[in-house]
Write a structure and sequence with these properties.
1% strand, two-stranded parallel ribbon, 2 domains, MetI-like fold, globular, 16 helices, mainly alpha, 368 residues
Length: 368
């Protein structure tokens, strides 16, 4: 009797889904499951066969690497990566004094290290403020000099990758809390606060970033008192922060509106005040569900820093353009722009993958 019950109550082993480990089965299920998908797969494969092998030959097999002369590059049938070897210091550091370029190099290390530590949730607290204070402090001391025996370097000589990272990182860090206040202000029941928040968001979102950069760089000095001069990098940084805050505010507002009204009612039942409700219950949930659009805005902001070249700030793109001012290397512009494209891609890809990791680690409501 016991043996019969044991047999009846045993859970039968699940059969492994067909094709789960079989490449042919996976291809049939995902790539050739119908005439349209099959045709689309064949066309994509044909396109890859047509594009990829010639590109590999151009970029690797027939390319010129290392130190080479322009004549050697012209004689080759492939890419001339020697332009990167020749001009990489100008591309990465702009017009920063050549003999002092170790300083922006370590400045980049400080900013990247600061960003990586910020991604570790163990430091999300007062430690994060210390990390950012140290990271930015080291960066500005190295770049500006004038202390610790470092020769001073004016900000109009800052450029390349350090300037791009500085504008992006500070823009993200400063715009985020402003955006939270704007999103809360737009949903406020106080008419004045709501109107001011709506007015700011709609005004900034209604104009392109180039307009703000032009206003900050050329119009703002006209309204300043005589003898008062605001640094050009600071003006561009403020414009970027204002622009990013408006867009982030709408993303966060979408997350706030997505939460059910019961969350507010439960907080009120517990006797929590407005700021306790927002800080402990509402904002954590709203920010969690808006991680993808928030990081998407961060990625867009990182790439939009290239627009500062329009107001004569030597970011990574303008530094590359200046490096290509040499007539002997000008024709190899494709290789130079591919080089900075890889740099942009690495940072944007990291933000995208970290966003996915953060979503998975915070998705407590989906765990069994």
């Amino acid at each position: 009797m016991e043996e019969t019950l044991t047999r009846e109550t045993q859970t039968p082993a699940r059969a492994r889904p067909r094709g789960s480990r079989d490449p042919i089965g996976w291809a049939r299920a995902n790539l050739f499951n119908g005439w349209f998908n099959s045709l689309l797969t064949i066309l994509i494969l044909a396109l890859l066969v047509w594009i990829v092998p010639p590109f590999i030959r151009w970029a690797i097999s027939d390319a010129v690497f290392g130190a080479a002369t322009p004549d050697e590059c012209k004689a080759a049938s492939g890419a001339c990566w020697a332009v990167v070897t020749e001009k990489y210091r100008l591309i990465l550091f702009g017009r920063y004094p050549f003999e002092e370029q170790w300083r922006p190099l370590f400045g980049i290390v400080a900013l990247v290290g600061m960003a990586l530590l910020s991604c570790d949730r163990r430091f999300w607290g007062w430690q994060l403020l210390v990390i950012w204070a140290l990271g930015l402090g080291i960066f500005f001391v190295l770049m500006g000099g004038g202390v610790l025996g470092l020769s001073p370097v004016r900000t109009n000589l800052w450029g390349g990758l350090p300037l791009t990272l500085m504008l992006a990182f500070i823009g993200i860090a400063a715009a985020f809390p402003i955006a939270i206040l704007l999103a809360l202000g737009r949903r406020s029941k106080l008419p004045i606060i709501s109107a001011l928040s709506v007015g700011y968001i709609e005004l900034i979102r209604g104009v392109p970033l180039i307009t703000l950069l032009f206003m900050g760089s050329f119009m703002l000095p006209l309204f300043m008192p005589t003898g008062v001069d605001i640094d050009a990098i600071l003006r561009a940084q403020v414009a970027i922060i204002m622009f990013a805050a408006a867009y982030l505010a709408e993303v966060i507002r979408g997350g706030l509106q997505a939460l059910p009204k019961g969350q507010h009612e439960a907080a009120a039942a517990l006797g929590l005040g407005y700021w306790q409700t927002q800080g402990l219950i509402i904002l954590p949930q709203a920010l969690k569900i808006t991680i993808p659009p928030i990081v998407n805005t961060f990625i867009g902001l990182f790439k939009d820093t290239s627009l500062v070249a329009i107001v004569s700030l030597t970011d990574l793109v303008l530094a590359t353009r200046q490096a290509l001012g040499d007539p002997e290397w000008r024709q190899f512009f494709i290789e130079a722009y591919l080089f900075i494209m890889v740099i942009y891609w690495v940072f944007c890809f990291f933000m995208s993958k970290y966003s996915q990791h953060l979503e998975r680690s915070l998705a407590t409501d989906r765990r069994s």
